[in-house]
Amino acid sequence: MTEQSQGPALDNLLTESRTFPPSDEFAAAANAGPDLYAAAEADREAFWAKQAERLHWDSKWDQVLDWSDAPFAKWFVGGKLNVAYNCVDRHVESGHGEQIAIHWEGEPGDTRTITYANLLAEVSKTANALTELGLQAGDRVAIYMPMIPEAIFSMLACARLGLTHSVVFGGFSAEALRSRIEDASAKLVITTDGQYRRGKPAALKPAVDEAVAQTPTIEHVLVVKRTDTEVAWTEGRDIWWSDLVDKQSDQHTPEAFDSEHPLYILYTSGTTGKPKGILHTSGGYLTQASYTHFNVFDLKPDTDVYWCTADIGWVTGHSYIVYGPLSNRVTQVVYEGTPNTPHEGRHWEIVQKYGVSIYYTAPTLIRTFMKWGKDIPAKYDLSSLRVLGSVGEPINPEAWIWYRENIGANRTPIVDTWWQTETGAIMISPLPGVTSTKPGSAQRALPGVSAKVVDDQGKEVPHGGGGYLVLDKPWPSMLRGIWGDNDRYRDTYWSRFADQGFYFAGDGAKYDNDGDIWLLGRVDDVMNVSGHRISTTEVESALVSHPTVAEAAVVGATDPTTGQGIVAFVILRGDAVDGGADAVKALRDHVAKEIGPIAKPRQVMVVPELPKTRSGKIMRRLLRDVAENRSIGDVTTLADSSVMDMISQGLNKGGSED
Ligand code: PRX
Predict the structure, then answer these.
(1) In angstroms, what is the span from residue 559 Cα to ligand 1's centroid?
(2) Which of 54, 392, 455, 582 is deepest in the core (most CB within 10 A)?
(3) Is residue 298 pLDDT above 60, yes or no?
(4) 420 marked as binding residue
(5) How far is CA 562 from the centre of its chain?
């Protein structure tokens, strides 16, 4: 682990001290009351068993939790269920086939209305199609798609057949897709011809063609037509969705799978260049996704219209668009596009159009809305909103207050939800009908979850103290490992506090004087850019793969909109031309090509040297000082303390930003 990052400025976090209790009316009608904490406290396993009973099980479990092989948990041992049945069929069977499951809004303005009966038919057809392709329970399927209904049908069809999906964000590069397909030995990729990006169609399939040219495990590429973009075609391998899926029967009988059957792999950045395939299984995952969605958002399935603005390429899309909400019989909006296409009021127009009552987004977007101005939301009728959520990074109190005032009419509770790809579902959050919310704090672990802030020795810090966030008890939706790498799993999450048996989340945190938890950002070499996790090493590896780069060091610098911005310091090779604007642009583009546009450095600074300790470790702390325009901190552990002067001088000629 490297030195602790500053995360968001603590001073800023603690300037807002107002609290906002729920209204009596909200509290009286809320799904979750204070008794939930007491029930979980009295008997944790019985509590989780009760939550699991909200689902349909084909056979009941014999044991709630088996932790004997820690850190590999088994939840609801011996139980069997079908995840897709729980998200779709049972709602049709209970007489809600005509309820709208998805109000889908395409970026160009086209729409689709999908009822639960429609969803069942589409998922069944997709499942029959995947079976025709020869896929069998346990096989892996890569899904590389924009936010169109077929992406959701595909995920649910996989779940229905016991296929393990690996969704790869549609903004990732061919190389990122290739490495993920290879790591999971996927047999099928489901994709589209193209996707809409900021009002224009952009091709997507060429990236798949490039990726699968090097992945022999892939047998087929199933392609949904979305943009009518001309695409290259490999006969025998490539299949149009419309040719295969449309002709299938809309009847399909789901099979029950073991509670621990793998449901999905989702890759996330770690502290090395190689992303980790986070593995989630079925019964425990669905239990906690469903429970948290129901209680944290106070979902009323008969009246609410819910909207989570995430992409299915991230865990938020998995747990809070697909599995949690659909298991709760949600009516939800799914939006394909960007928030400013064709205008900056698009989200509020959608809220008004569908009467959205629950809205879940990321702080980076809230800060972007702030930048665009409060006049924009003010033009729309947002009176349907009754719960607002935030996820992905610490929300600064200023953005929290802006969100409450300008979107929530000073009335709606805001739930700041802390969790991770690894935790599978929300862990720390207010309950909207119980908690007096505090701008900037995620507050306390949900009933059934246990989190602590501890010092270096694993000892809990007192109120007012700061340290590391740990989860000290197993939880149902916890990751079951890193795909194919149990050692890395133990090492990454369980070695830091091995004596105590704590899961180390990688986040710094503090307790305030009331004992509420404030998240302070990552303490490892993982950056958080617009709520997306990107490792410094991954970007460094991409940079040094460019022929002109000799060495690179990357830091996350505080950014007013994106939380952190990627700042790269590079040393060019001796024979490379000087680091002018063209060279810098080439490097930024190269990173976008290697990883994806989200990893494009905000700034590339060409420097003559990097600050290193005597053991050769790059001192990122000093580079962060430079990147954030602070005076440079203690340089006494540098092997050569004149390096920082050289860097500052080098910046004058090489620094660049656009
Ligand atoms: O640093 C924390 C931050 O996002 C990380 C998890 O990223 P990811 O796995 O991509 O999942 C994002 C969506 C769940 C965490 O380690 N993070 C997430 N939510 C919050 C947060 N930091 C502060 N407050 C939050 N509410």
Answers:
(1) 16
(2) 392
(3) yes
(4) yes
(5) 15
